[in-house]
Amino acid sequence: MSNSDSSNSKCKIIVDAMGGDFAPQNAVLGAVQAFNENKDFELFLIGKEKEILKVLSENNLSFAKENIIHTEEVIEMGETPTAAIKSKPNSSIVAGVKLVKEKKADAFVSAGNTGAVMAAATLIMGRIPGVGRPTMGASMPNISGICTVFDVGASVDSKARHLLEYAIMGSIYTREIFGIEKPSVGILSVGEEETKGSEVSLAALEMIKKTNLNFKGNVEGGDILKGTVNVVICDGFTGNILLKFGEGVLTLLKFKFKEYAEKGITNKLKIGLVKGAMKEIMKDFDYEEQGGVPLLGVNGICIIGHGRSTSKAISNMVLRAREMYAKSLIKKFESSIGQYSHL
Amino acid sequence: MSNSDSSNSKCKIIVDAMGGDFAPQNAVLGAVQAFNENKDFELFLIGKEKEILKVLSENNLSFAKENIIHTEEVIEMGETPTAAIKSKPNSSIVAGVKLVKEKKADAFVSAGNTGAVMAAATLIMGRIPGVGRPTMGASMPNISGICTVFDVGASVDSKARHLLEYAIMGSIYTREIFGIEKPSVGILSVGEEETKGSEVSLAALEMIKKTNLNFKGNVEGGDILKGTVNVVICDGFTGNILLKFGEGVLTLLKFKFKEYAEKGITNKLKIGLVKGAMKEIMKDFDYEEQGGVPLLGVNGICIIGHGRSTSKAISNMVLRAREMYAKSLIKKFESSIGQYSHL
């Protein structure tokens, strides 16, 4: 593995083979699939070599052995992030992130312990100059397209300045990845009026107004799914609760449909008849299918997936990392954050 | 209207006839329906007498004219709460709340401007001794029953002590109204571990641990709909965003089903076939049908409804007010809040 010269060389992506509830199976299959369908980037699998080789051979997949990086330790899903990254320097997460820090790779993709990946990326890769706190964005479907919410859990107790950073990076990400020329940005609050909000949200509103972002001011919880704006900014405490609540709504709906079907044979037939329709409608909401969320603001590309990530989700995460590299997002973040250092 | 002696006399409930998008129609019909079906309380309708009489006569309803309290002014849905309650002392909201303050009535029910009702109730009725901030609770359906979230918008930037108050009052409300003997209480956070949370949520966690509430510590956004606990405590900023996001999920789902149906005749037939099922399943989530939310912590009973409240919702709100009176909730809040004044 040689040093990566970001602009000319092929993008080097490291996938955490040990990350996720179905690791190494889903991680290896998804990563190799993304690679085989594109081949315009370099793929590295990091984790227990024996286990990786086993998945490859069981699925009749050929993969360059020199692109497997063996690590002995594994950070489990339930471990305390900071303690785990300290005590397991030879884990796939810590070693993988370190290779990005050392410019031996450009991106790290993992469906492992979210907190550990965030902590490792933040502490080891470091932050982009001018960024106070990294942020995770989750994209949710709406009536007219997609709305991405920053932050959904990278930090809590964000200050107004951090929300400004989320707005800047979120706006660039949405422009480059979703092809929306001037993404509209709203700040999450308890009313549309400019006087409504928390101390922090009101201070952030005043700051973001001074940028040249396409800022629409306050938006409400319902606006995320109405398609009022392309980017919604909030503290990671609220964003994380929102994201998990949204997942909960879907789980509850599935339960209610099942409960209805179990009430009698007519009900069962009705539900059976529209199962396909249901699946198609629910697909957009399925976080397992959507791939991971980007961690923006760290000095390197980092995509974090849901523990339940399918191989398709992993594949999508790898392709997203490749796109972020091709579009030089890290450089664009740095230059734009620098532009607003006076705020 | 004579002074109300809370324990022995009949409960006196004032309904804001001018409150809500379909006022006076829905407010009058719903209130009179609740009264006609029970008659064990006294009902007063407050608002423009002529308009109230018109709705009554158009619907062939008889109602004691002396129980109509005429007010000339109306606070509109879009008005700024504090300015409106100052400039319109003879509005149904301000005058109605004042009658509760003066002990001439026991409860005020309104589907009008939420902010104005909250502000009027807080400023005019005043707070129960020991309560720093009133709180609104919204009940949401889950797999095993109902979970009530406090606060969903009565205040923002709550301090830890306020969250403790929400926990105490929310717990009593859930015990008395939903008949759950020792309601389990959780505090909304970004993880179950006791170390996870915002500065305020962590401080509140330590405080609530010292009470004899059935406290389960941190819960996540998804737990609200899983039925993990009966009562969920959070700051009104997060709670309000969550509530509106939940409503948004339902709106989006309805849109998606419609979109699917419009794709072709087979799709249309499929959706048509399960419309009834859908309605039954979605009913539990329909905030318009559920009636209003109680404003706890003010020194009197106050129920606030959604602007779109149906007459059934208004009727349910009136019955809830009557129940809160019968169960002496205000006294129970006061005594329990007093018990924890040392925290």
Second rung of CATH, namely the architecture of the domain at 1-131 and 297-329 in chain A: 3-Layer(aba) Sandwich
- The CATH class designation of the domain at 1-131 and 297-329 in chain A is Alpha Beta
Side by side, the strands of the main sheet of chain A go 3-2-1-4-11-10-5-6-9-7-8
User: What quaternary form is this?
Assistant: homodimer
Which ranges of chain A are low-confidence, i.e. pLDDT below 50, for 5 or more consecutive residues?
none
Can you tell me the CATH topology of the domain at 1-131 and 297-329 in chain A? Answer: Isopropylmalate Dehydrogenase
Q: What share of the residues of chain A lie within helices? A: 40-55%
Task: Please report the number of helical segments of chain A.
Answer: 13
- Determine Rg of chain A (CA atoms, Å): 21 Å
Largest sheet of chain A: 11 strands, mixed
Tell me the structural class of chain A: alpha/beta
Note the overall shape of chain A.
globular
Distance between the termini of chain A: 41 Å
Order of helices and strands of chain A: EHEHEHHEHEEHEHEHEHHHEEHH
* Strand residue content of chain A: 15-25%
Mean pLDDT across every amino acid position of chain A: 92
Task: Provide a descriptive summary of the structure in words.
The structure is a homodimer of 343-residue chains. Chain A is built from 13 helices and eleven strands. Among the domains of chain A are: 164 residues, Isopropylmalate Dehydrogenase, CATH 3.40.718.10; 39 residues, no CATH class. An eleven-stranded mixed sheet of chain A has the order 3-2-1-4-11-10-5-6-9-7-8, with helices on both faces. With 343 residues, chain A is an alpha/beta fold. In chain A, helix 3 crosses helix 5, helix 6 crosses helix 13 and helix 9 packs across helix 10. Chain A starts with 10 loop residues before the first strand and ends with a helix. At the A-B interface, helix 8, helix 9, helix 10 and helix 11 of A face helix 8, helix 9, helix 10 and helix 11 of B.
